[in-house]
Amino acid sequence: MRFFDIVNIYGLIIAVIIVAPHIIYVKTHTIDRNKFSNRAMVYIDRTGRFFSLFLMAFNLGVLEQGFTEPKELMRNFWMITVFALTLIYILLWLVFFKTENKGVALATILISAFIFIFSGILQVKTLLMTAGIVYLIGELYIFSQYFKDK
Length: 150
Known about the structure:
Blueprint lengths: L2 H4 L2 H20 L10 H19 L13 H29 L2 H21 L3 H21 L4
Helix pairs in contact: 2-3, 2-4, 3-6, 4-5, 5-6
């Protein structure tokens, strides 16, 4: 088994790009953790996020079939679409750092979740698609609690 059979280098790059703004935001802003009263939903968010990032970067071989036919066309379609969505995601984060707008925050959540779910569907990775759905549910809870008073 080769290294690139396990590691999806493009998925790894996307995962790093998606997680970087979260890390920067947590390091530069103070967040009142008492807003998130439902600890189970916080753990669902974290689980969905970390599993989505992990499954985006690594191929486990469990419930995975790879791209459907024609493989090269589907891979190119996935790469172009996901990189375009990732660019939009980065731009939205830059706007969010300046404004902390509720609509921009919701757009970043929806785009990142769509990237995971879309990648799971196109690559026929059932676990990635499921983790993306769990991530979306958890992020929407965090979003609703974070912007409850704003």
